[in-house]
Every structure is written in C-alpha cells, then in structure tokens.
TrEMBL record:
Compositionally biased spans, kind Low complexity: 998-1014
A single GO cellular-component term on record: plasma membrane
Protein name, as recorded: AsmA family protein
Region (Disordered): 988-1014
Family annotation (InterPro entries): AsmA-related
Listed GO biological process terms: regulation of protein targeting to membrane
Domain of life: Bacteria
C-alpha cells in the first residue's frame, strides 16, 4: 500500500510539473507558428508585441490556452488607414495533444474581450475584411495549409463593439456592448449551433436616415448546420428588439463561391401595439414602461432568392396597426385612432423594383387629426400617388408626444397631394399648401425663443414637368429676441429658376446658430441689411447680370467665424457694403485672422455666378493692408487637407503645412503689409500685386526687406495639386549677406555650401521652379533654374578646399581669396547646382573655376590655375614634367595646372590632373562643365519620361477598373428590367384570364413556419 501511495504522489507531482512546464516549452513554437500563418495567409498589417503573448495550461486544462493582448489588424491599399479589428484580449483554446504532436494544431475555442471591429465595403464593392489567402492560393505557392485546423466547439465575445458600413447600398450599423456566446461542434459536418447575443445599443442607418437609434437587442438562435451542403437552417429562435419580439424560419445556403441563397420568413411574436411602439426613436426611455397603450399589430415578411455581385434576394413586409393608442401618464392628451396598413413587396430583389403601398394612415394627436396615404412603384423612376393632410396645434401635440427640451405652439396646417412620376426630368403633379400662424419655438439649448412666426405658401405643379413647379411664399415673419426678420419668395422653372425675393432685418448670428447649429463651425456677430433680388438663373448662368435685378445694403459688426478648417478664426470688427446685380462694393472691412490684422476695400463681381452656378469664379479687385500678418497660421496638411498642428497654435514659430489657393477665385489683390512672419523669417514692407485664379497665385513686382537685404520677385505658386504644390519665381535680391543667407535658407545650405565660409554680400537675378514641401520650403530635388550671382564683395577664409589647393600647388596666396564685383553664371538642374566657368585673379595668379555639387554635398568641380612657374615648388614641377613631358619646367615663364575637386565641402579631395605651358585654363574648365551639364539634363529627361510612363500605367489600371464596374452595373440593369418585365407580363395574364394570385392580404396572420414538418 505504501508503494502505491508513493507512486500516486509521484504521478501527481509529475503531472503538476508538466502542467507548469508545458506552456514554456511550447510558447516559442506557437509564436513562430502565428507569425508564419500571418505572413502567409493574411493580406493585412497585424500588429502585436511578442511580450504580450502568454500561454497557460492550469486554467484551461484539458485545453492549451494561448492569450494575445493588444492585437491590431490594419488594412492595406484602400484601407491602409483603417483598423479592421482591435483586440485588447484574445484567448484561443488549443487541443493539448495537437500542440504536443505538432503536425496540426486544433483550435477548440475563441474568446474576445472588449473587441472593436469595423467592417467596411466601398462603393466599388471591395471589402476590408477580404484579407485571408484561400487554401488553394496558399497551396499553389507551396505553402502548408494544414498547420491549423478549426475544430471549434465554443466561442465568446464580451462587451464588444461592431461597426459595419456598406457604401454600395448605402447601409451602416453600430452595435455597442455586444455580448455573444455560441456552441457547436465544428469537427462534425452535421450538427446544431446555438447562440445568444445581447446588444446594449444598436443604431442602424440607411441612406443617411437613422431607422434604429440606440435600440437594445436580445437574440437566442438555434440553427441546423450542414457543412456538406453548406446549408444552414433556422430552428427555434427568438429575437427581441427593444420590447418587440419576432422570430425567423427558413434557411440560408452557400451553394458556390459566388452565391448566397435565402428562403426565409419572419413574423412578430406579440400583437400588442405597445411592443412595436418601442421601436420609434425617442420613445424607448425610462418613461416608456409607464406609457398606456392599446391596439393590435400584425407583422410578417419574407426574404427569398439569390445574393451575388449582380443580385439581391427578393423581400416583402406586411404591417398593420388597428385602433392603436398611447398616452404618457404625466401628459393630458393622448394619441388615438392610430390605423395603418402597409405592404412592401419586391420579389425580384432589385431595389428599383420595390413597391410600397400604404392605403390608409390615420391618427389623432389629441383633437388634431393627421391623415395620409401613399403608393410607390419603383425608385428610378418612381411612380407616386399620395396625400397628407394635417391641421395641428403644436401646443396640443406636445401634450400627446413630448419632445425633450422643446417648447412650441402655434397652428400648423398642411394639405399636400402628389400623383405621377418622379425622375430627373419629371415630377408628380403636386398641389401643396402650408400655413403656420402665431408660431413659437424654444429650445433648452438656447433660452431665446423664435416667436411670432407667421408664414403661408404653396407649391403647385399642374403638368408633371419639373420646370412647371411654382413655389410661392408671399410673406414670412419672425422675431428673434425683439429683432424682426421679414421677407417673401416666389420662384418657378426649377432647372433654371425665375425668382423674386426680398429679405430685410437684422440677424444675430450667435443666437441663430444656437437654434440652428452649424456642424464644425462657430459663427457670431450681427448682420443687418435690406436685400432684394429678381431675375432668371439662365441670365446668371450666361453672365447676363444686367438682366438680374439685385440691390441692397449690408452691415456687419463683431462677426467671427471659426471652423475645423480655420481653427485660428476670422474676426471682422466692422464691414459695410452695397451691391447691385453687377457687383459688390466693399466700402470698408476691418478685422483679424488669427493673430494677423487686415483691412480691405474694393469691388467684387460675378458674385451671383459664384453663389449659384457651380464652377464659376468670384472676380474682383481688392486693396488689402496689414500691420502684422503671420502666414504660418494658415498652413494645411497636404494629405488630409486640414490645418496642421502648428496652425492651431497661437503664434507658431515654424511653418508646417501647405498654404492652399482657393479654386474658384479670380481676384487681384493689391497688398501692403508692414510685417510678415513666414517660417522663421521676418519680412518688412511687403508690397505688390497678387492675382489669384484657378488655384494659382501669380505675384507681380512683390518687394520686401529681410535679413538686411531687398528682395523682389515675380512668378507663380500653384496648388492645383495640394499634395504637390508647384512654384516658378524670378528672384531679384540686392545686398544679401552670405552668412545670413546660409543661416536662414535651407536652399542655400544645400546648393551653395561654400557660403558657410564666405564673408561679404551679393546680388542675384535668378529664375527657379520646382515643388514645395509640406513645410512650405522648396523640395531641393525638384529644383530647376538659371541666373546670375553678382558677388559685390566676398572673402573666403579658412576653407578646407582652398587650403588643399594652396598646399598641393605650393601657392599660399590661394588660401584666402578676396573677390570684388564678380558675376557668376549658374544653373540648377534636377536639384543640382551647376556653376559655369568664371575667373578669379589673385595677384599674378589667374584661376578659372566651374562644376557642380549635389544635394548630398558631393563636390564635382574642376579648376585651372595659371601661375608663374617660379612660384611652384619642386614637387609640383616634377609632376608637371611628368604630365607635359617638358624637362625644364622652371625655364618656362607660366604654366597652367588642372585640378579636380571632389569629396565634400568639409572633407574635400583635390587632385592635380593636367598641366600645360599654354594659358588654356578657360577651355579646360568649360569643356568639363559642359559635359556635366549635358549629363544632368539627359538624366532629368529620363526621369521625367519614367514619371510619365508610370502615370499612364496608373491611368490605364484605373480606367480598366472603372470599365469592369460599368459592365457590372449594365448587367444589373438588364436583370432588373427583365425581372420587372416578367412581373408586368404575369400581371397582364392574370388580368386577361381573370385568375392568378390574389392581392396580398392584410398582415393579420403570421406566415407558416417552413421549417416544421407536416
């Protein structure tokens, strides 16, 4: 017995040791397997820290636990900025024996804690979750497809968030607080799957309309899974949306890689009106449980057909509400006599073929009746036949249905009918009247009410032709905190409206925008005026503004504007102007933009075309003055086209973005600015003319002072491509100090590195073009240009290059150069500076220099020195004897030395390459420089040709993708038309023979459960 006990204890100890040690033995193996599978099978960026991977056996026995923290899956290509999934804690249960054996690892369970999943489908149909490489594709590459086997028997999600967006429909939903569990044995091909799902808040949107807002969901679903046939049949299930329960019956199949088949019905599991009332936005709150409600509801429908790239399944919905009523206990009035019948039917599945019929709708809001009916056939074109009629006292309506934070009263009358076809060229015959009297609206968000609202108007179309629509608002009046606003409007001929309008009064924008908030914008201030306009938009489009009657006066005080695109804000302290149909005359305008002040006056023309006709430019001439203007505050990121971080700061020291030029401006700005801050420069007395047109700013005779020098420039700055802004300037600079230029301009540092060791001043007349970077500094690799440098006076001291030349030639006079009134001709080619040959005289020594230096600082210069032979040392004389073949070099009068200068400005390499008894230094340098310039120009031509070829290839790919999408749409339209024709033929035969299927019965009974056996 003692031996048995000892043996058992030994076994227990060994088992515990194994449980503790096994995870450490296999941790690296599992990590390597995960890395391999991700690299081979996932087309996405998968980010995680290896230290965030842990394994365990004690808490998951008999399964092996793999725990991964903070895992992110980020898309590629079109989704490179999107996170598909963020998994703070991913737990995977693995079969222990499969881990030990190692040939194939079986995944038994998956648990996700607080995951955030965002699924998207673009308009092109591309999905961000299409990231897995198929088994067949992996096998074709010779990759192992059997390393991991999904033998899942259970899975769980705790407190997750799932977002879905499909731009092809367009439909989206956002589910928060998702808790889900599921069980099913995926090791079998035929088994039952059960799951439970709860969602704390579900919001669903279709075509920018919220149909579900923060609804609660509880779903218990059981399905029969047949993996052999890829057929999934719903068994017992119940879904509750808020307090509305319903169920599914039928099946979903995946017969092939392209198609999904549906044969399903759904029905309501309760018939109380209160249950469906809970789906109305805003009703389901803490007070809903106390709402008194009665009446009956019937609801059922179907989904049947095939879904693929070309088709969607057919569907239908029947809804009936009979004698519905509801009443909030704390309110005196009730909504009653709610009766509704609605049928939605689309057996073909094509959205354009849908039919909606609401033959009856009625409700009484207290004593105020609302009636309506509508029938819709198709969407494009849409056949409509409907009417709505209501005469509602708003104060009584709010006694029936409360709207949080809103107080309203007044009588609202609406009577509108519409019958006919709505399309791009047609509209229904319409007769609509609206009248609002003694109106009053107040929101808790802003205490000042809008009161004394009185308006009446009509919308009439007697022919169904769009241009025969007449809108008449003969008067409107309202008062906002004692300030009245009055006006009128009449318009017809919608495609090119003929209008007659007048508005007069004062508007406090601070109050107005609190009542009607502007998303992402803040506007304050007061604007008053008396504005009248009458005319034809056809005249506006054609530029015949003399035929348009427009006149008025406008004054603004303390007007401010701030937005996401302009976070520094604009403040107009005062402005006044007059206008007519031809132009606006700005008499005076004073304000600030961020920390910059400005004042302006001038004229603006074509403002009607700019406001009403897309693509027309605002024209005019303005005179602008400023004491201090900070350009850095207006920088824009070239990718997001949003203000950069630096632009939000109060007074940024550095420019960190692109200054955009407006697209539809055609303006001439005569500017005078006392002080300009641009990047790290301070400019004074900036004057000149700037013409803004087609996203190009053209500068003419712009002059300013900075760094003790005078600058003049003419040229252009082009932001037609905000990511690649271009410039083309002519520069005229007088008396600029070499040291200040080197310290202040990166271009000088890169292209003229010798300026670092030069004392003195220079002038230049230079033309240069290229591309601006995000920092509003030239991209050096893009520069091209040519011009002259006039060296007024310069001293080159302690230059490593001159020291080497002096040492090599034994000419100490060359260590320090003094240059006066020397003109140097230079050219910039593809970002490289090419200096054409120029002469320098140092005593009786003549020196010719030329060559090029690159952006990396590499020097490729050549110099020829003509000097008296007697000044040369023995070493140089010996080398010249070798180079020239002349034995008695010292017997000659003068000699020409040829030297190559390589290396960098701080570490030059000088070599003696030639010698001659002739004074041919100019020819030596000229030939070398000419060769280098030719090579540079040839390299630039090849580079541009390669860029053109790349652009053409990208364009071809884009055109091919667009053609494929067009072909797909054509096929969809064809199938849609065929389905509609079959429906019409079937309907005609039914009418001809007096038989066929009867019209859909009202939704009073639920459809049969097709999953039940007879």
């Amino acid at each position: 017995m003692r031996k048995i006990l000892l043996g058992f204890l030994a076994f227990v100890v060994l088992l515990l040791v194994a449980l503790v040690a096994t995870p450490f033995l296999f941790k690296d193996k599992l990590r390597a397997l995960a890395d391999k599978q991700i690299a081979q099978r996932v087309r996405a960026k998968v980010q995680y820290n290896p230290s965030d991977i842990d394994v365990t056996l004690l808490s998951t026995f008999p399964n092996f636990g793999l725990d991964i923290k903070n895992l992110r899956v980020i898309g590629v290509d079109s989704f490179s900025r999107d996170t598909l999934a963020y998994l703070p804690d991913l737990k995977v249960g693995l079969d222990l024996m499969s881990v030990i054996k190692g040939s194939q690892i079986d995944v038994k369970s998956v648990t996700l804690d607080q995951p955030d999943i965002s699924a998207k489908i673009l308009k092109s149909g591309k999905a961000n979750w299409d990231i897995m490489v198929s088994d067949s594709a992996a096998a074709a590459k010779g990759q192992d497809t059997s390393s991991v086997n999904l033998a899942i028997q259970g899975w769980k999600m705790n407190n997750g968030r799932i977002r879905y967006s499909d731009l092809t429909i367009p439909f989206s939903f956002d589910a928060r607080g998702v808790n889900h569990t599921g069980k099913g044995d995926f090791t079998k091909n035929v088994f039952d799957l059960t799951s439970n799902t709860t969602i704390d808040k579900l919001t669903a949107t279709y075509n920018d309309v919220d149909y579900l807002t923060d609804k609660q969901v509880n779903a218990d679903v059981a399905m029969a899974m047949d993996l052999n046939k890829n057929l999934y049949t719903f068994k017992d299930n119940k879904v509750t949306l808020n307090d509305f329960p319903f169920s599914f019956a039928g099946s979903i199949g995946l017969p092939n890689a392209e198609d999904i088949t549906y044969d399903m019905t759904f029905k309501a599991l309760a018939t109380d009106f209160k249950n469906i009332l809970s789906l109305v936005p805003g009703v389901f709150d803490k007070q809903f449980k106390d709402v008194q409600a009665s009446g009956q509801v019937a609801f059922d429908g179907y989904v049947k057909g095939v879904q693929n790239k070309l088709r969607l399944p057919g569907y239908g919905v029947n809804l009936a509400v009979t004698n519905g009523r509801f009443k909030y206990p704390q309110l005196p009035q009730e909504a009653k006599n709610i009766n509704l019948k609605m049928q939605v039917d689309n057996p073909s599945g094509f959205t354009n073929n849908v039919k909606v019929n609401i033959p009856q709708f009625h409700l009484d809001l207290g004593t105020n009746p609302v009636d309506g009916n509508v029938a819709i056939d198709g969407l494009d074109p849409m056949k409509v036949d409907g009417r709505v009629k209501a005469n509602v006292n708003l104060a009584e309506a709010l006694k029936v249905y409360p709207v949080a934070g809103i107080t309203a009263r007044g009588q609202l009358f609406v009577d509108a009918t519409g019958k006919g076809t709505y399309s791009k060229t047609q509209m229904p015959v319409v007769n609509a009247a609206i009248k609002f009297t003694n109106g009053y609206v107040k929101s808790n968000k802003f205490p000042a009410p809008v009161e004394d609202i009185n308006l009446s108007g009509t919308v009439v179309n007697k022919t169904g032709q769009v241009n025969d629509t007449y809108v008449d608002l003969p008067q409107f009046h309202l008062v906002l905190e004692g300030e009245p606003l009055d006006g009128r409007l009449a318009a017809h001929n919608i495609n090119s409206p003929i209008f007659d309008a007048n508005v007069r009064g004062t508007v406090d924008l601070t109050k107005m925008t609190k009542i009607f908030p502007l998303d992402g914008m803040t506007v304050t201030g007061r604007v008053s005026g008396n504005i009248a306009a009458a005319g034809n938009m056809a005249d506006v489009d054609a530029g015949r503004y003399q035929n348009v009657k427009a006149s008025g006066t406008v004054q603004a005080k303390n007007l401010t504007y701030k937005s996401k695109d302009l976070p520094q804000g604009v403040n107009i302290s005062s402005a006044s102007g007059t206008f007519n149909n031809n132009q606006i005359v700005i008499q005076q305008l004073n304000g600030t933009a961020g920390t910059s002040d400005f004042a302006a006056n001038g004229t603006i023309s074509n403002y009607l075309g700019y406001l009403f006709t897309p693509g027309q430019a605002l024209k005019g001439t303005m005179n602008v003055t400023s004491h201090n203007f900070n350009v850095n505050e207006f920088m824009v990121d070239p990718v997001s086209e949003k203000p950069t971080a630096g632009a939000v700061q109060k007074a940024p020291a550095k420019a960190d973005g692109v200054v955009p030029i407006p697209k539809y401006f055609d303006l001439v700005l005569n500017s005078k600015v006392d002080n300009v801050t641009y990047d790290n420069l301070k400019l004074q007395n900036a004057t000149g003319t700037v013409t803004v047109k087609n996203e190009v700013a053209t500068l003419k005779d712009l002059t300013f002072n900075t760094l003790g020098a005078t600058f003049g420039t003419s040229g252009s700055y082009n932001t037609q491509s905000l990511a690649h802004p271009k410039f083309d300037f002519g520069l005229n600079i007088k008396n600029l100090d070499f040291q200040k230029a080197f310290a202040s301009f990166n271009t000088v540092k890169a292209l003229v590195p010798l300026a670092q060791v030069v004392q003195g001043v220079f002038n230049t007349n230079f033309k240069v073009s290229g591309e601006m970077g995000q920092d509003m500094l030239p991209k050096l690799a893009s520069l091209d240009g040519s011009g002259l440098f006039d060296i007024v006076k310069a001293s080159v001291l302690q230059s490593p290059t001159l020291n080497q030349i002096a040492s090599l030639t034994t000419l100490p006079d060359l260590k320090n150069l003094q240059v006066l009134n020397k003109i140097v001709n230079a050219q910039i080619v593809d970002g490289n500076l090419v200096v054409k040959p120029f002469d320098i005289t140092v005593g009786d020594i003549k020196m010719t220099l030329g060559g090029t230096n690159s952006l990396a600082g590499a020097l490729q210069y050549v110099t020829a020195i003509n000097a008296p032979t007697g000044k040369l040392g023995t070493t140089v004389s010996n080398q010249l004897t070798r180079l020239t073949g002349v034995q008695n070099i010292q017997g000659t009068d003068r000699v020409t030395l040829g030297l190559n200068i390589g290396g960098t400005i701080t570490s030059p390499q000088v070599k003696l390459t030639s010698g001659s008894l002739k004074d041919q230094g100019k020819a030596i340098v000229t030939n070398v420089v000419k060769t280098k310039l030719t090579d540079a120009l040839l390299g630039l031509a090849n580079k541009k040709r390669a860029q053109t070829d790349s652009t053409q290839k990208a364009t071809q790919i884009t055109q091919q993708n667009a053609q494929e999408q067009l072909n797909l749409e054509i096929q969809k339209k064809k199938l849609e038309a065929e389905a509609k024709a079959r429906q019409a033929i079937g309907k005609g035969l039914n009418s001809l023979f007096g038989g066929g299927r009867k019209a859909s019965a009202p939704a009073t009974t639920a459809p049969a459960d097709t999953t039940k056996k007879p």
